[in-house]
Design goal:
By secondary structure, the protein is an all-beta fold. The chain contains no helices and seven strands.
Length: 90
Amino acid sequence: MAFTATEIARVKVMPGYVEVIGYYVNTASSTGGNITHGLNEVVNVQLTSAGSAADNAHVYNETLPLSSGTAVTIVTGADESGSYRIFGRP
């Protein structure tokens, strides 16, 4: 099982908040993993599937606001890839 998440941008969206933008890739029947974000508090997570329609709904396995830890755990369909947007305080 292999899950990778790659950050492609970190954008200041308003005073005291940033949005971390990137993509995730599942291979070898992987069904999710951790997205490292480096934020002190996460207040919103948006996941979008890439390619054809997803077989299952993708979800984040956290209670928001998330103020502990440095990663958001996501669960997806097998081999699903897509993009993420994580909004919070640095």
